[in-house]
Amino acid sequence: MKKCYVYIIKSGDKVNAPFKVGVADDPNSRIKILQVGNPDHLYLVMHIECDSRDKAFKLENKLHRMLQGRHILGEWFEAKQNHILKALNAYSNNEEFEEVFKGVSTKESEKAKNKKLKIRIKSQTKHIKETESSLVTRRTESRIMREALVGYGMSQSSINEMIGRK
After folding, report:
1. What dihedral angle (degrees, nearest 10) is formed by the CA atoms of 138, 144, 149, 153?
2. Could you give the CA distance from residue 153 to residue 132 in angstroms, rounded to a whole number?
3. What pLDDT score was predicted for residue 16?
4. Selection from 22, 21, 18, 63 nearest residue 41 by Cα
5. pLDDT at 92
6. Could you give the CA distance from residue 142 to residue 28 in angstroms, rounded to a whole number?
7. Which of 55, 68, 72 is nearest to 6 (CA)?
8. Potential cystine with 12: which of 22, 40, 58, 104 (Cβ 3.0-4.6 Å)?
9. Assign residue 43 a region: left if phi > 0, alpha if psi is -120 to 50, beta otherwise?
10. Torsion on CA atoms 107, 47, 62, 121, rounded to nearest 10
């Protein structure tokens, strides 16, 4: 099977410059063709190697759908680079991602798996921080309640018995 690429091209130097998401056998040749009709300098931001045109178009279509709220015209999107990366991250946590990247070279496949793992670790870390924060809040609330109950004349042993601690 012939390799094919999903490319992301940025038009111009501005932070909010438009991006193009497309498919090509050779992203560098494609950017040269597009440059002819574009007054802004085009930059190849990234390209993702797929092992078939079918898989490349599947990835391209998925990215187009994920970015549809930022659509300008054709395959151009008004998005910051982090919007593109968020779409790729969201897609990488999807089962379709595995299908598209089946057969991709080991190096690319490992990069994709590592990226997916980093995203999951980041998500789990955020969840742990939120849980720890919640526990600190609950401990504080518990301490305040205990102090209030002691203030109403209850003993620590009565409080412990009431909440099921002995």
Report:
1. 150
2. 32
3. 76
4. 18
5. 64
6. 62
7. 55
8. 40
9. beta
10. 50
Q: Which of 32, 25, 87 is nearest to 57 (CA)?
A: 25
Which pLDDT value is given to residue 112? 63
Distance separating alpha carbons of residues 112 and 118, to the nearest angstrom: 10
User: Contact at 8 Å (CB) between 123 and 102?
Assistant: no
Written as six digits, the tokens of 82 are 């982090």
Give pLDDT, residue 101: 47
Tokens representing residue 70 in the block: 């930022």
Tokens of 14: 């501005």
**Could you tell me whether strands 4-11 and 71-73 are parallel, antiparallel, or unpaired per DSSP bridges?**
unpaired
Distance CA 25, CA 4 (A): 5
Region label for 74, one of left (φ > 0), alpha (ψ between -120 and 50) or beta (otherwise)? left
The pair of structure tokens assigned to 128 is 């742990």
pTM: 0.55
**Residue whose tokens read 């990069």:** 111
45 and 68 Cβ atoms separated by less than 8 Å: no
* Per-residue model confidence as pLDDT tens digits over 99-123: 444 444 445 556 666 676 667 667 7
End-to-end CA distance of the chain: 70
Residue 8 phi, psi (nearest 5)? -125, 120
